[in-house]
């Protein structure tokens, strides 16, 4: 079964360990991006995962292609051209010091791409599922239009369409996000989000004040928010991640899925964070994998949260875990014991 | 006072930090093995520590020899020859992701060794103590027979004989383990184990379900298990480590010793794990050091658990701590403050 | 506004990560010292920060100068000459294993410096504040006398004078410390300390046993101690850091300031430690910055503790945080969330 | 156009830089093998490159698969199973100190593979070319037979078949090599070799003593050797690499091709060696690429030698150069100037 | 004596050692740029060196500022603002493989700067010399105009003005270069160049074909070229670097200066290259230092070439050598012996 | 056969690769010293090698002990005590940039040692040979006297005594050296030196100007110098190393031995230097090994020069080569080819 994802993959530059920017003269140079993270995670689950973007010619763009190819992602539909790849500088936080993310992604190949770069009929050949996130339309009006064409065609061809709201205040305003996402969600079956995204993008106010920074979660508010969002677009499923940031080193992590009738909650994990980047993306990938394989909503949210829980223990944006490893945790073994 | 240990030392290949296998192109290349870990720990306590194994000629085998020599372990009785050193690939877990251990130890020099390789009369010259673990006889019938000859001679020459059950399901079946260990334990004065080993090797069922993965320990069950094990062989001491795996980053750690009459418990430590490999071996070493130096059972278990608690804060298989450092912790200073 | 600090900056040699000394063949080679740490932290807050010491000619001494210049510290008044820079070997602890600090600082340039090396009239040109710690006079009678001349002149020229008691048992006896600090504190407006320093240096016994290693803090005792200290010298402010060392990986951290009338407490933070070296120095810097900028005692202790809380999440001795980052935490956001 | 290669890919463990084995605790852990090196080089030239081997299940075997997939090599026909991957320890020489290569490849998955593991009809689907080296049949009688079946079928299906003699004295005797290679070469169109291989495998004595270690090359002897080899099997082309090992840091490197009538020589390069492993493999890849694309023998040897000259400037076994880079050098620009 | 330089400093991302881009996951992240390189080299010679550019706010721009401050460069006149810092990806060549340089410098702060960003009257306060290179006007019409204003004012205020032609074909055409440089050179006293630059920018054809790539230099052609260039602008001095690229690992390096009457040649060095980036910049810095300190043309070219010869043995763009080290080489000791 | 060496082992701090001091924040931290280098080299040749020095208690001194123990050096006679270990900072040169060596060795344990620290009767138990260098008596009058006692006793007990003149101008004057070495050489059978040492220490002027820095060697002058030296003390052998420093990356290296009658020259090697530190020490070790094993003077100088030639290809002070590797080179194979 083939899943297509579409978005921007960037060069990620990150100091070693917990160093601040330029505290020494070395940087980790890897690649990542919300949709690429989903594509890699799916490939690691054994799914035929096709990733679509535009990347410049030359060794820097090729580095991004190769980083995906390494995991078996199908890169044959990636358009090549343009001047540069987007870059983001990431600094890992610890304890009370939060992570820092600085974008240098203007004028990237994908941001300056046009409809001619993508033949969606060809791209969707053999595909069962199409996934995108709210970052993709935020890249520009042109990219939004490319994406809109894609979701419409996907819908028409009978693919399941999923999205992760992923609101990025550094990329667009709430107003622009609402306008674009409202149109796109019409063609979207499954919406992944968290309560903040729902508020930022669609103005869904869960009523009870949810003090995310203070670390308290209000399940009633979450259900209200998910319910409103589901109704807004008649989505088949709305899935929420519930993160409690105790501090940059410890988070609680849980998921919930709403099928228009019932709310299913996963187990809640207390996580010692190795790297939280890509946590939400690994949740989406887990959800897609499960539903694609005919699992129930309850099973899907359990698998998705276990997958993303494991992601937090892995360096980098990509979730390098197998289905067996996720299922072991989902079945309750989080003891971290060694088998010898 | 001289302690002899006998077993397999392997080349250990481990990704840096918390990386998964081949997440980058570097690996830590060190050496370790249960009995070698005990030997190094004893050398660090100032004991005259003689380690016996078989290693191939050439720079790879020599690397293992040198790694022991570095700590002052007596390597003069190591047999040389054979085709290869055993290898194990180790990946360090974190949070809910457990550590991974992959063996590539077939056809190692020690596995293919024969009685002619070891002159136990010479090896035991000047020795007071002989220690082995359940891994050594699991290496093959030939190694079991070499070991049996050794324990018999050790007993005859008046050495104290100790073992750590250390059941490895990847090396042999429970049935084979039971048969071999039953014979070996007849000549063994002091048995280190945990409740799982006792169940796996000797079928000792502690009755009350002890949910190790769930993190709950049942002291009554532990006592029942240790008591049965002690009776089975009339051992002078049976010592248990009690690990509660909260997750791969946090464990509780405690020890208990049974002298056939009384159960002595150490303090329980909550450990932030740097590296848990070698935890049990450092416990054995602490116990041997204490009893060799005439400490009481109560003192010995307190020292052994403090030693192995410190091991969890040290990278690699070897416990690089001094007697003074262990005693400082055993006496109650676990604050981690700096003296300046 | 210009702050002058005076003390010893050393070459710091530290194994990578949590390795023990010489566990591999690499060491981090950076520079640090209590007063230099304060100077760098102030420069990072945008203060005109002038640091005074003596360093040998040649690339090793120049390395220290450059490490300060990197952050914009004014190094123009550093004397050059002498034979060597002091060195300290530092090993980072974890869990129950404490950090280790080994000094090799005898015969350093600053220890062998003389009055002729420093023209305090010139050094204090344009300065508003002078800061030193109890380490500086501990370097030798000659350094004490240089410092005494400096504080007297500072006082005379109307600078605010602050100190951090920083008692170092490896450098001098309690008797020597008391004699020197009693004289110096006469010219000191603001004294930073903790309860142990107050006891070690001035014999102030807070009455109630405060079991620092056991992790319990007695606020009444702290107030009694600070109050006595304040009265002893008529200091404008006495500020205390209250550290509870749970273990080498987790500490609680709080601050208190006494203005001769009221005790103001900061929030208490539970810290996952990345590196605790320089924690006290970052507190002093935060306090100086705040008071220099006309903040109230309550605001100052809140800022100082937030600053030093962040220091614990940063590798190395220097606190690399901005005023904005400190204020964000002081205002209550310690969730470590990423802004994207 | 599709090229199929078949052989063993191993885990390569190598100390950093010019360190001797275990001089520090780190090793580069990459993958390589003569035929895999050819496959990767071809993929880097844009060829549809399919690599066939057998690798164990699990993360170590998967690491090898991913390392090929990274470069776009088609790994879909790799058989999975068996117990282990072959390992080789490599130490890089310098100046008068030669490189060291220690094999630990017994019992590898490919060595224990059987005919059932490979469906050559399926593997050759769409293929134009089949390449192997003398290392593959040296892995064992079973692998020789698998290979013999493959070359016969390849021949039958009209593929061009090429081989590199690659005699490895550590793997088999000259007699075994001669017997196997004589049979295999019957179905081989193009033979890559050097004078030593021709002598070791086929006993071709070039007459004039060629003192390879002394650094002198005798072109007449080379021509005689190549001529005999060509006649022996009626090969379409025999191509020789001519290496003069001045020392481990400097080599001269040249190539020659014989079409049964004329000898064509490439330019001779004086190389400052970064890494010479894979030098011969990159020559084979360059030759295959050129001939596959209809180049003349003269052009082919020029391209192949330029490609392998560049390989010597690249770390690791794989030749990471593009066609454009090779052509730039082949056309005469070896100045190493930067284009800015 | 104060020297002002003006240009673009970029973030430089470079794989470790001789690795190709993304051959592993690490990159060196340093800062460099032709004029900044000159400024740092001058600071290392003890000159009061003021560097002018525009850099974005935030930690990435600050990293560039700090990297200059580290060497004592005066950064007080650097404008802050704009969106990004220019980036360049650099791959170090070896043997026949040339270095690769990929620019991602569009839309950098300095490229989008305006006249308001620079108060040249203030910048030139206390200055004796102004230096720029041909890269600065290539950044855009706006930057050219800023620079033109600067050189005019410098001239008017009596500063010595020097430039390095530094033609970059990736930044502008020969026509644009000629137009801009013709105007700028009117106000320039000393022109550094090489024969290629003179041809590219001013169309000066040295007559005899100089085959730079082939490694032959034609001194007569060089003299003709320098002579024409000198006449064109009536420059006080024209100084040429004469590089013979034997390959990427070995270059010959010499300098020549023409005072309108005589040609003075430095010694010629055969260099084993560690890093050739910044070679020309270190020549300019050596020349400026010498002439600023009243050395003769002969002495200046000797010092400048020795300085830049040493630069080739140093990693990174910055020439980290002292006047004493340069003079030692200029006086003839290139034996590389250790003084102990 | 047992060889005893006596001297100072220091902590060596060296930037990575060719970096200048503090160019990044890492340093290699290893141990070395002329006599320790000889001791390790001998241990690597299989000799029973006993090294004598004094080192401080604690982990830094223990690091030095362990670094020797790693190679099997007998460390049982090392005295422990004192305040510090000597340190030396080393920067590796390249091309025209020479290596830099900065000592921080005052007040080291060995420098402050006294006769009571060494029981030479016990130390020489079972010994056949005693080796020292001119660095040892340069450490201070006390160390000279300890050494004098040792050489006298060695002579009396019939040991062969050898020394390497090793003049260090940073440690003592030529006058002091002459006085001390004249007395010590009376008891010395074999003197290793180079022409400069002979001139510096004993004022032996070889007549013809030998321009070492310019790279020309005058064999006649060498012979005259060696001859004078031999006569001065009636030494059994005088052995000279003949280094031509072409630059810091390339040296020529040859040896000569004089038996009072004939001059035997080794082959001359052109070396691409990896690390030249310890070159002379590895020559001494090669000579001692050969003569100890009854080789002729001709064979000894050939082996010694081959050994030290290989040392130049190895990182660090210790010569990590086996007898077989040296003999392979001495027999003429310097091609650096790989055996596979």
How many domains comprise the coordinates of chain A?
Answer: 1
Q: Terminal Cα separation of chain A, in Å?
A: 35 Å
User: What is the CATH T-level topology of chain A?
Assistant: UDP-N-acetylmuramoyl-L-alanine:D-glutamate ligase
Helix-strand makeup class of chain A: alpha/beta
Question: Would you identify the CATH H-level superfamily of chain A?
Answer: Ribokinase
Greatest interface? A-B, 27 and 29 residues
Unreliable stretches of chain A: none
The proportion of residues forming helix of chain A, as a percent range, comes to 25-40%
Share in β-strands of chain A: 15-25%
Q: What's the main sheet of chain A like? A: 9 strands, mixed
Order of helices and strands of chain A: EEEHEEHEEEHEHHEHEHHEEEEHHH
Main CATH class of chain A: Alpha Beta
Q: What is the number of E strands of chain A?
A: 15
| Oligomer description | homohexamer
Overall residue-averaged pLDDT value of chain A: 95
């Amino acid at each position: 079964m083939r899943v297509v994802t579409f978005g921007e993959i960037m060069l990620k530059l990150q100091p070693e360990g917990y160093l601040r920017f330029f505290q020494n003269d070395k940087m980790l140079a890897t690649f990542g991006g919300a949709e690429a993270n989903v594509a890699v995670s799916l490939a690691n689950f054994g799914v035929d995962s096709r990733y679509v973007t535009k990347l410049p010619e030359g060794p820097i763009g090729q580095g991004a292609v190769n980083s995906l190819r390494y995991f078996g992602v199908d890169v044959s539909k990636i358009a090549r051209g343009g001047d540069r790849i987007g870059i983001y500088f990431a600094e890992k936080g610890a304890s009370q010091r939060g992570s820092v993310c600085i974008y240098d992604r203007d004028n990237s190949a994908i941001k300056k791409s046009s409809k001619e770069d993508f033949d969606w009929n060809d791209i969707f050949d053999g595909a069962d599922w199409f996934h995108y996130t709210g970052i993709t339309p935020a890249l520009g009006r042109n990219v939004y239009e490319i994406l809109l064409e894609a979701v419409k065609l996907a819908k028409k061809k009978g693919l399941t369409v999923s999205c992760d709201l992923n609101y990025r205040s550094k990329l667009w305003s709430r107003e622009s996000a609402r306008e674009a996402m409202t149109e796109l969600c019409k063609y979207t079956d499954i919406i992944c989000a968290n309560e903040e995204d729902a508020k930022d993008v669609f103005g869904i106010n869960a009523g009870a004040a949810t003090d995310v920074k203070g670390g308290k979660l209000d399940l009633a508010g979450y259900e209200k928010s998910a319910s409103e969002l589901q109704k807004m677009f008649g989505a088949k499923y709305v899935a929420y991640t519930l993160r409690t940031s105790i501090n940059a080193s410890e988070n609680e992590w849980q998921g919930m899925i709403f099928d228009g009738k019932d709310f299913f909650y996963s187990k809640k994990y207390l996580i010692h964070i190795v790297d939280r980047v890509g946590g939400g993306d690994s949740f989406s990938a887990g959800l897609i994998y499960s539903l694609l394989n005919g699992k129930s909503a309850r099973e899907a949210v359990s698998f998705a949260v276990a997958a993303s829980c494991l992601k937090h223990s892995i360096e980098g944006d990509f979730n390098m875990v197998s289905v067996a490893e996720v299922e072991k945790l989902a079945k309750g073994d989080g003891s971290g014991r060694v088998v010898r």
